[in-house]
Structure formats: structure tokens, C-alpha cells
Amino acid sequence: MKRLLLLVLSGIMVMAVSGFIFIGCTKEGPQGPAGANGTNGKDANATCTLCHNFSDTIVVKMFQYDASRHASASTIAEAVRSGCSGCHSHEGFLEKLQTGSTVTQAYSDAAPINCRTCHLIHSTYTPSDWTLRSVTPVHPYIDTTSSIDLTVTPLGGTADGTSNLCGKCHQARKASPWPTSPNDSTVANAINLTSNRWGPHHGPQFLVLAGQGAFPVGATYGTSPHKSNATCKNCHLGVATGNFVGGHTLTMSSSTTGDNVAVCKPCHSSIGTTFDYNGKQTEITGLYQTMKVKLANAKILDTNTMLNKLGKFPQATCAVLWNFLLIDADRSMGVHNYQYEHDMLTYGNAYLTSRGF
Question: Is the pTM of this model over 0.85?
Fold first, then answer.
């Protein structure tokens, strides 16, 4: 027993001496080179703090954006489909900006729309990284040879082309077959709808705001001043209330706060507590409901699913259906462009009445 204890103690002493010798003989290596400076001659820490500081600016925007529908990535699964990923994923959107094509790759491991999708984050490491990636005019999917530029000068503001960034996605896609004679009500030139998802698809707000995208059935449609005086940014990124409406929530209304009319008051000082300014939303809703019934009577719309029915229909009837679906997908009921929606509903209803519907 004593011998075993002696061996253990001897081992401990050897280890201690070895450690002492190692520490005593090991010298500290030479000092490494100085860290690289940031941009504009600033050190890296100063560069980062241009944005990452105690102002909470980033924190607030992230808090708001996390509550937005864009951030929810509820449709990210569409990124696996070529042609859809350009609006449904971060990678597809950047590809679309780079190539200018309406068809993008399929991305199976895609990121949702995020800060870097719209902003030049970590490109220059200066506040200019908040710059939007693109504010160039939009070549709409329904006619890529044309161009729409919603660069406007809002009331009391400066020229602002930010709506064009939103318009890269918030537009209609071209349907097939495409009415080439939207005022033709004959059976001889009828077109055959073989998909019950025929129409402009979702989110065509940019086109509605611009007063474009609808078929002129019976007349040329007018447009409201919002096209020349408002931007998507003015309203959707306006006065915020927590993460319910405004700011980077991009949301205009919530069950908690109601309609965010604060963004309307700089131009419409007499507005009440809802977007139904002078009863215009009520009027558009009434015309919309009338057309909904007429299209059902024409047996081209299923009002339970809000999808079109299959079969051959006159081009004019299909054109009116397209206009109806454009308003349905816009969802503003006249806020984006009251006159445009009023005219397409009024003349469309007149056409359907003339057809006995």
C-alpha cells in the first residue's frame, strides 16, 4: 500500500515539473498583423457601428418586418417551380433582377423574401446599404415589350421610384389563352378555358395603381390621382403602430388597430376612421358584388371557389372576368385606383347586362 502511494505521488511530481519546464521554456509568438480597416478609412468596428448601434433602428425594422406576410414565407414552397421562384424566393428574385427574365430557376432550398432581397445589405458597409436593389421601370409580364415607370413626386416630397421595386412582383401574369379581341362577343371567336386558374394570379396591385392591366371592354378607363401622387412606400411603410400596421409590417389594417388612416391624412385631412373615404369603397364593393353575380349567371365563375369554370366563352366575357379577378386580387376595393376600378366594373356590368346576365 505504501509503495503504491509512493508511486502515485512520484507521478504527480513528474507531471508538475514537466508542466513547469514547458511553461518556462515556451515563448509567446510574434504579434500578428493589425486588423484590416473598414471602408472609408474607418476601422472595422467603426464601420459596423454606422448601422449596428444603439439607435435601435434595425431592431425596430426587424420587429415590424417579422410580423409581415412577406416574412411568413407562407408561399415559399412555390420556389420549387420554375417561373414562380422569381417572386416567391429571395434567390429567384435576385436572379430575375440580374437576367431580366420572367422565368427563373427552381430553388428547392430557398430563402424567403428578407432584408437582403430588397436592400443592398453588406455591400459597402455604409448606410448606403439601405439603398433599394432596383427602382428601374417595370416590364410587365403581360407585355414585356412595354414599360411602366411609377416614379412620382408625392405631396411635399421628392422624386421617388420605390414603387417600381414592388412592381417587379406585384403585377399580373399573362394567362393562356389570351383574349386578342376583348370586345368580341361572338361565339365564333370564343376562346377555350382549359384551366380553372385562368386569370391574372395574385397581387397585381402595381398594375392597378398604374391604371394598366385591364381589358378595355366598352370604353377606355380613367385613373385616379394616386397614380401620380402616391407610392407604395408612402402608404404601406407609413406611420407605424407597434408591429400591427405601418413601417416594415407593410400592413395597412389590422383587427387590433383598424385601418391605418394616419397615412392618408397628409392628402385627405377629412378622412374618418376607415379607408371608405366618401363611401368610395362601399361603391366599388357594390359594383363588384353585382359583377360577381352576373359572372356566375354567365356560368364562367364559381362563386364558391372564386375560380373560373372550364369551357368556351366569348372573348369579351373572358375579358370582363379577367378585369373582375384583377380587382378581386388587388383587394383594395378602390383605394389603389378608384376611377380605374369604377370604370372597368361599370362598363363590364353593362356588357354582361346586354348579354342577358
Answer: yes
